[in-house]
Q: What sequence folds into this?
């Protein structure tokens, strides 16, 4: 014979009645006792660790950076992916040509990459805008774009043609000068007029 299941009971633990009065028919909940010396170590919160020295902190950050980096794909995997990427791009070009679009997208090159960064930075500096629009300046974004070009210059040193090196140097020089001018203008701009603070 099956045992009779205990009825499920819902207890009302609200401290106040619907009218807003404090209820007197409930007992206050018992507070959880603080852990004592006899409490198992697993239940106690971990002790705070001592602050790391700058050298230890840098070493730990470097170790985490290397630990989080997954292993690179094998040469065979990279080749298979490149072949699939090229084949998909060809299918896309064929679709465009069948749809009446005869011109092909220009091949990506180092010069086009630098020009793309250049145009992005000009937009962020407010040098390029739609007609009738107020120039919007993203000074932080522009700095990051210029810094990205600087990293590109450092990482490709000794691996560029004279034309590519000259383009990168000219673009960086022009963008840095524009960034300096705008930053100086923002620093010297007068704060907006507002109510004078009351003198006490």
A:
């Amino acid at each position: 014979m099956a045992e009779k299941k205990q009825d499920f009971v819902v207890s009302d633990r609200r401290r106040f009645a619907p009218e807003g009065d404090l209820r007197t028919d409930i007992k206050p909940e018992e507070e959880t006792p603080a852990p004592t010396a006899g409490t198992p170590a697993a239940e106690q919160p971990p002790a705070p660790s001592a602050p790391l020295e700058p050298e230890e902190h840098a070493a730990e950050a470097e170790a985490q950076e290397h630990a989080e980096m997954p292993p690179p794909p094998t040469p065979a995997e990279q080749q298979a992916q490149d072949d699939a990427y090229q084949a998909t791009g060809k299918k896309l070009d064929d679709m465009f040509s069948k749809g009446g679009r005869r011109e092909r997208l220009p091949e990506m090159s180092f010069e086009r990459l630098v020009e793309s960064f250049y145009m992005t930075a000009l937009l962020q500096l407010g040098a390029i805008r739609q007609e009738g629009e107020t120039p919007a300046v993203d000074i932080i974004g522009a700095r990051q774009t210029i810094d990205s070009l600087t990293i590109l210059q450092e990482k490709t040193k000794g691996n560029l043609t004279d034309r590519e090196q000259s383009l990168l140097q000219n673009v960086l020089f022009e963008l840095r000068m524009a960034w300096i001018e705008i930053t100086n203008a923002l620093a010297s701009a007068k704060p907006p007029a507002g109510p004078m603070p009351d003198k006490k």
